[in-house]
DNA sequence: AATCACTCCCAAACCGCTTTGGATTTCCCA
DNA sequence: TGGGAAATCCAAAGCGGTTTGGGAGTGATT
């Protein structure tokens, strides 16, 4: 059943039926009722392909998931990212996974084929070239995160990663820890840079000199967390606490602590960053790890709304939004052990 | 730059240009060259919206990620699922996350609006109603997994979960373990049912009676794994080995073992199922966990190909494909301890 | 009664491509 | 040398909606 058939059945022109269904004012209320009823009765659903062509809009937003050619790891956070925000407004969500050396082409094609009305930029890096590119080709976008080093204005939503790790470090310092290991994500990722800055800032505020041997940067996997923590624990002057970039790394860190015969939360404290992913909950009742927490799900909803807003506004001014992370106390932290101190 | 403009610039009709670009035979080789060159030079990319409308194809496949209203957990495996299979053939990948009580409508709308040419069915359940629905509305689909209880023929690709867990159980039995705890996923999920069957079959073959207290079924989270393992370890006659549904649950199980002051691989063995997700590698050089392994990435690629094949074939016969899991020996298993035996 | 402003509806153009049904030219062979 | 096949190309008709530019009817205003 298409528009024309429905119109014929109603004895109306396609024009009127289209207007009736789309809420235009120049149609009699009574007629509109009739049309609506018939549409419902015949189970009429407009063909999206036709709408897209006629309106020149794609009614879709793209999520381009970069995959680092060097580190073949897919960032899975977007799995929780997809809400009903899009579908509620009639938008589709398009996914493409692209090697980072081919991003340029991907975005250009997305634009010139008219596949999407806008994109979400995931996993921004230091001086991320995508921001200039997208601005240049005129494809609306919102960055989930920020890109240090970029000068052009752009829309973004980010967690205050610096302050989150600043607070976490302060919390550990307050507990008496002075040797705190940082097990960070890859430090060409923007969030990782900011987290390190927060960590360093907190140390500096207490006049504690940073120790390069206590700062690791790697993929956020269990094995990498294990390796980093094991290495640091083996130092002559090992840390009494770890600040860890993710839930999964944190599990590796815990394994390292236990493998060394130490007890988490008593001998060695751990704070992780928790994205509050649905499939990776930090405990059910009481948190397993003390954590800086910020819901990716929430952020995803907001970013999606920002983008749709940007797309529908004729002259979009960049929108910016900084979320604060909570500091959640769990079972993995405690006062610095006397003996070590 | 669109087709018409390009045609004008070349002094040709849109018809010819279209045919030249799409490889139709009724165009002079020389002309084709010229057209190709010009298309490249002017950076021409055909408007997908127009193609879709003209051809009546959506050039897109849908992935509907069910979200259980009772358990709000998004299955993140599809993150690794998305390959270049689609883009190579000019297809887009559409994602929708849908509460399971609204699936019916979602698929119907997908069909009637013509948003997709086919769908991948994720996370099939016992007697999954989606298979009958999709067959009825005539939307091509391939199931990633299988749905026990369904009688109509349909296309699927699955891992031999039964045999994987059968072999894993046998392996533990061979090591002398006789009390083996099963920490399974939710048992309305098809794969979980099959895994339990494999486990039971192996026990039966050695005339070991299953013990209900050694069989848990829950969400595959760290906390659930921890809880299940802790409970079993506290039994008067605790298991000496665990068979665990996932990497993440496995981490919870390990935490439980260590919290009980036992050593993994010496006092208590653990075998997990490893989907070989890029963001959740089971160690780097040597596997952390002994595991039944089967790459979701690989499976995803194959399922995608099956679906595209199904879409392009006029009279599709159901395709079926069963993959075997490898049994990977890692550091988490060892002979059953004498004392307990 | 003529003018004007609304209200409500429609015909037709358009979005940018594919595809059908020729038309024209060239080639080959009887 | 004429006629049919083959090779090339084109005009025009869709695909299924939206949107522009009226047109007819109704009431109120002058």
Please describe what this structure looks like.
Two copies of one chain form a homodimer. Chain A is an alpha/beta fold. Chain A has three domains: about 45 residues, 434 Repressor (Amino-terminal Domain) (Orthogonal Bundle), CATH 1.10.260; about 130 residues, Response regulator (Rossmann fold, 3-Layer(aba) Sandwich), CATH 3.40.50; about 140 residues, 3-Layer(aba) Sandwich (Rossmann fold). Chain A is about 40% helix and about 15% strand. Chain A contains twelve helices and twelve strands. In chain A, the strands form two sheets. Chain A has a six-stranded parallel beta sheet, with helices on both faces. A six-stranded mixed beta sheet of chain A has the order 7-6-8-9-10-12, with helices on both faces. At the A-B interface, helix 4, strand 2, helix 10 and helix 11 of A face helix 4, strand 1, strand 2, helix 10 and helix 11 of B. The structure holds a DNA duplex (30 and 30 nucleotides).
Spell out the key features of this protein:
six-stranded mixed β-sheet, DNA-binding, 39% helix, homodimer, 341 residues, alpha/beta, six-stranded parallel β-sheet, 3 domains, Rossmann fold
Secondary structure layout plus pairing:
Two copies of one chain form a homodimer.
Chain A lengths: L2 H8 L3 H8 L7 H13 L6 H8 L4 E8 L17 H4 L3 E8 L3 H10 L5 E4 L7 H9 L3 E4 L11 E4 L1 H14 L5 E5 L5 H16 L9 E3 L4 H12 L7 E4 L2 H13 L9 E6 L15 E4 L2 H17 L7 E4 L2 E3 L13
Parallel strand pairs in A: 1-2, 1-3, 3-4, 4-5, 5-11, 6-7, 6-8, 8-9, 9-10
Antiparallel strand pairs in A: 10-12
Helix pairs in contact in A: 1-2, 6-7, 8-9, 10-11
Chain A binds a DNA duplex (30 and 30 nucleotides) through helix 2 and helix 4.
